[in-house]
Amino acid sequence: MDKRQFILTLVCWSFILLIWFTPRSMARWISTGVVLFIAILWTVAISRKTADPQNPAADQTQTPENFEAHSLLNATMSGMREGLLVVDKDMRVVASNPAARKLFNPAVPTLESQRLTELTRNPAIYSAFLDGLKGVERSGIKVETHGPERQIFDLRVVPIGTNGSGAKGALGVFFDITRTERLEHVRQEFLSNVSHELRTPLTSIIAFVETLESGATEDTESCQRFLSIIRKNASRMQGLIDDILELTAIEGGNVQLRAAPVKLQELVNDVCASLAAKAAAHSVTLENSVGPEVMVYADERRLEQMLTNLIDNAIKFSREHGAVKVSHEAGTRDRILVQDNGDGIPAQHLERLFERFYRVDRARSREMGGTGLGLAIVKHLALLHGGEVTVTSELGKGSTFTIHLPRSN
Description:
Layout: H1 3-20, H2 24-50, H3 64-79, E1 83-88, E2 93-96, H4 98-104, H5 116-119, H6 123-133, E3 138-146, E4 150-163, E5 166-176, H7 178-213, H8 220-251, E6 260-263, H9 264-274, H10 276-281, E7 285-288, E8 295-298, H11 300-316, E9 323-329, E10 333-340, H12 347-350, H13 362-367, H14 374-384, E11 388-394, E12 398-406
Parallel strand pairs: 7-9
Antiparallel strand pairs: 1-2, 1-5, 3-4, 4-5, 6-8, 9-10, 10-12, 11-12
Helix pairs in contact: 2-3, 7-8, 8-14, 9-11, 11-14
């Protein structure tokens, strides 16, 4: 390794360490600056290479060192996820990298010599590059594409070769922020749902506490009824918070499975015993149809959690004097079925049933004390096992939830 390569390697490692130990927001700005710096170097290298192809003197600077640097810049630009686009003062593309070609027109081998208006009709992109040619740097421009997959980019445009009358060209960098935007949308939706779910029981608790404070404590019967309602709503809030923490831990990868062979019949018996009082209150019969020889490979505690959520849901939505049946089917995967004979679920709701806070009948679900997170927890625990959970339903006949688990090797 010569001195030049050693210095380059040292700079690369220093940059990686800086990003690693820097807060995320600051790291993004640092990486943005570095990308722009490298992109400008790349643009200058291309400009020098193509400045005067008829002049033999133009090749005199192509020493082995310069050729190596130029090759390194080309390799860096080709491997970047960010799309880079350079236009001249006539709005013609003079340089681009593969990410930009994929963004604008993946069918053509090159974008060079095309006008920007031929690539896109997006006014935000055109306006940003036009300002760049006027010598004005633009950043923070949100650009959306509406192809097979909706993508969102953060566009930054800087002028190149600025003089008194403007710039000779403009360089645009397209940062893909699709995943960031989706996560932000999920976060906002989650906070909105949590706030909504907590507001109802909290309002009820405050109302009855104020009633008690205003003198209702003298009426023993009313006082006991109010306290019972307060306890019910407080328990609902506690259940919601517990489910939120549980789901967050699962989605964050903080749950470690301890998979081992599990006697399914015994586990189902334990779950049914824990829910027997609730089943009796709803006049629902619990039936364990799992054979005594059935063994499944899973984390016993997490499988119990999944079955508890599914059987509890089945009890809530079964008809009076109905039945909830748990059975097992063998195949390429173990299938654990939880079947009820309730009213069933309309087909348009089945696809979204395992989303957080999604309810078919919000009023009825809240009345029964549901948090709206039970099925989402089941889904993520099944995925954590390398399996999945599915549902089939027929109106007027009931629903069947199935946990699919990989068989042990």
